[in-house]
């Protein structure tokens, strides 16, 4: 696939928001480990995809252990642990689990990583509170409260540094992370937007979301979209291109234009929703 085609498909993908499973049939397909299993793969020197077909999990390797972004849920947690082992890593080496937000598909496996592998779970204060109240969409094993992070906080593990932003909207405590990935030693700035789905309502929340997207657009030099649902970043199409990559080809995940285009698309959709809500009142 050529970049132009990919770029267009990213724009199309951006229209599909990650609504929680609705019809029973679709729910079954999303929850079925057989249908959801994806062989794990390396994307950068220090970043691996270990998620399933509809929800991402990413493994970041450092010189002092591993960092896992999102913990999946239900039977998919077994797939996640298997994927980590299949890549030759030990789940016991996961020092931190960064939970992008407290919805079951991202937080569901967090408690297991705490109990079985001794990982420290990181979330914003707002989403710790969410995880301590009634579950939105679906129940999950509640993690014990570990570390809270907010805007401007950083976390160092060995020579790796994560920078955090609270980007509320999808939940009140969506956590986004900025970090560096390396392509044969060459650094690129990557961002994981912790909650892009517009499946919520209310003018205040929509305005919050718009502010968050604005904040993300303001981060200078973003080159890589580490999306927490693979469709949002066209993860599997890019992986296919990575497998076919020739020596002189650019890295298919390094695509600053599609990062900006995706955020602009989200902003446009959120603005239309906000306009509609305001004109209803
Ligand atoms: Zn969510």
Structure commentary:
By secondary structure, the protein is an alpha/beta fold. The chain has 10 helices and 12 strands. It is globular and about 55 Å long. It has helices at 3-13, 24-31, 33-36, 76-86, 104-107, 110-117, 125-132, 203-217, 235-243, 256-280, and strands at 41-44, 47-49, 58-62, 65-69, 94-98, 120-123, 147-148, 154-157, 160-166, 175-183, 186-192, 224-225. The model is unreliable at 1-19 (pLDDT under 50). The protein starts with a helix and ends with a helix. Helix 8 (203-217) runs antiparallel to helix 10. It binds zinc ion. The site of zinc ion has 5 residues, from loops.
Summary of the model, kept short:
The chain has 281 residues and is an alpha/beta fold.
Proportion of strand residues:
15-25%
Low-confidence stretches: 1-19
Order of H and E elements: HHHEEEEHEHHEHEEEEEHEHH
Largest sheet: 7 strands, mixed
Per CATH, the class reads Alpha Beta
Oligomer: single chain
* Strand line-up across the major sheet: 1-2-3-4-5-6-7
Name the ligand types.
zinc ion
Number of strands: 12
Distance between the termini: 46 Å
CATH superfamily: Ribonuclease Z/Hydroxyacylglutathione hydrolase-like
Radius of gyration: 18 Å
Looking at the structure, the CATH topology is: Metallo-beta-lactamase, Chain A
Q: What's the rounded overall pLDDT mean?
A: 92
User: Which outline best applies?
Assistant: globular
Assign a percent range to the helix content. 25-40%
- The helix-and-strand class reads alpha/beta
């Amino acid at each position: 696939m050529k970049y132009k085609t990919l770029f267009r498909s990213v724009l199309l993908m951006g229209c599909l928001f990650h609504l929680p499973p609705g019809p029973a049939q679709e729910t079954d397909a999303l929850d079925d480990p057989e249908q959801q299993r994806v062989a794990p793969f390396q994307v950068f020197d220090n970043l691996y995809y270990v998620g399933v077909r509809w929800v991402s999990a990413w493994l970041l390797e450092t010189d002092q252990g591993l960092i896992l972004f999102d913990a999946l849920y239900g039977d998919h947690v077994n797939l996640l642990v298997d994927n980590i082992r299949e890549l030759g890593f030990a789940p016991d080496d996961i020092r931190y689990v960064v939970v992008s937000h407290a919805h079951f598909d991202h937080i569901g496996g967090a408690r297991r990583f705490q109990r079985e592998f001794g990982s420290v779970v990181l979330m914003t204060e707002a989403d710790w509170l969410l995880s301590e109240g009634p579950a939105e969409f679906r129940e999950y094993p509640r993690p014990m409260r570990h570390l809270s992070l907010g805007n401007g906080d950083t976390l160092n593990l060995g020579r790796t540094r994560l920078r955090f932003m609270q980007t509320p909207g999808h939940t009140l405590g969506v956590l986004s992370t900025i970090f560096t990935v390396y392509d044969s030693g060459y650094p690129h700035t990557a961002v994981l937007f912790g909650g892009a789905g517009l499946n919520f309502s209310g003018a205040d929340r929509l305005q919050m979301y718009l502010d968050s997207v604005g904040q993300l657009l303001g981060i200078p030099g973003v080159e890589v979209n580490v999306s927490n649902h693979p469709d949002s970043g066209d993860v599997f199409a890019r992986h296919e291109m990575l497998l076919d990559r020739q020596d002189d080809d650019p890295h298919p995940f390094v695509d600053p234009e599609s990062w900006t285009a995706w955020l602009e698309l989200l902003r446009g959709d959120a603005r239309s929703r906000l306009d509609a809500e305001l004109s209803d009142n």
